Amino acid sequence: MTTTKPVRQAPTKAEYDAFLAACPSRQLLDRISNKWVVLILCALGGDAGDGAVEEGRLDGSGRPGEIDTARAMRYSEIARLLAGVSQKMLTQTLRALERDGLLTRTVTPTVPVTVTYALTDLGRSLHRLTRELRHWAQTHMDEVLAHRRQSETPTT
Amino acid sequence: MTTTKPVRQAPTKAEYDAFLAACPSRQLLDRISNKWVVLILCALGGDAGDGAVEEGRLDGSGRPGEIDTARAMRYSEIARLLAGVSQKMLTQTLRALERDGLLTRTVTPTVPVTVTYALTDLGRSLHRLTRELRHWAQTHMDEVLAHRRQSETPTT
DNA sequence: CAGCATCCCTTCTGATACTG
DNA sequence: CAGTATCAGAAGGGATGCTG
Fold first, then answer.
1. Taking chain A, what is the end-to-end CA distance rounded to the nearest angstrom?
2. pLDDT tens figures, A9-45
């Protein structure tokens, strides 16, 4: 396996600041702050299956290899898992993520061509966050719904 | 018909699944997966200042009270910090977050009216993720840029 | 199967002008 | 100061038809 160790030598300074409009990290934040990006990362990260995110896995310091069920998925698999995604958006988002180095696209010249997508190390590092993001949404859904309900009642 | 219904009486109830198009958590994920939402949460969470997110704070288990510099901010403060945001988007996003119970809006009837925004507990819980999201974007910016560059070169 | 191309509608987003 | 209201362009997103 490719054991790519992040070669950080000077993590001290803040080269990028997403608060600044012109900063490239602002654009990157815009790209990863996307419904489909989050779900695709979750899919390739192995958060699929029953759909729910296990509580125990979220502490991050579990058994490595178990939490990272990062498997390659075919295009149609992803499309099936991400209910409601259009072919256009899926392809578009996958290509963007490929360009940014978050996932790899592998074409196997079988009879009907087979295309698989898999997370890179970079993608896996982001997947830890997207998984939690999805988990947060599912966990706090009730609280949000309750607050919305009581907000829409301005009756004195 | 609707046959696949995961009604398994699991101990940890998986009521919501963002992979499903009709699930409310999908909409919630869509809302929080937003550039401005992330930045507003970061702003109110106290990630401002020099702009950089400290490395040491990210483990999450630091000294509480220090990492949560969640302070109330005025409208103009937020607008100034989030460079490039239009007042329309800012107001719109703030109201949405208020409805969802992620932040509070306080109007003080001073001479020129003063409006302050502050995170709720719910908002703070999400802020932990948005902070890491922003941090990820700023930290991995170089890797992404490098990969983009080599992607746009077919390298025969 | 895994796309790409096209049409078309909706939403987002920024800019401008105007109040309490 | 902290909005609201409106306009117009840009981007998001879906539906359909067509390839290798």
1. 63
2. 444 466 899 999 989 999 999 999 999 999 999 999 9
CB contact under 8 A, A144 and B136: no
Side chain identity, residue A36: W
B86 touches strand C (CB under 7 A): yes
Q: Which nucleotide is closest, CA of A95 to its C1'? A: C3
Amino acid at B109: P
Of B135, B134, B140, the closest CA to residue B36 belongs to B134
User: What is the CB neighbour count within 10 angstroms for residue B127?
Assistant: 25
Q: Which amino acid is at A93?
A: T
State how far the Cα of B39 lies from the Cα of B43, in Å rounded to an integer: 6
Q: Which residues of A touch B147 (CB under 8 A)?
A: 99-101, 122
Q: pLDDT, tens digit, for every residue of A83-131?
A: 999 999 999 999 999 999 999 999 999 988 999 999 999 999 999 999 9
What token pair was written down for B156? 């025969």
Q: Are A52 and A134 in contact (CB under 8 A)?
A: no
- What is the distance of C-alpha A4 from the center of its chain? 20
Strands B73-74 and B103-108: unpaired
The tens digit of pLDDT for each residue in B21-55 reads 989 999 999 999 999 999 999 999 999 755 455 54
The pTM assigned to this predicted structure is: 0.84
Quick one: which of A129, A128, A12 has its CA closest to B55? A12
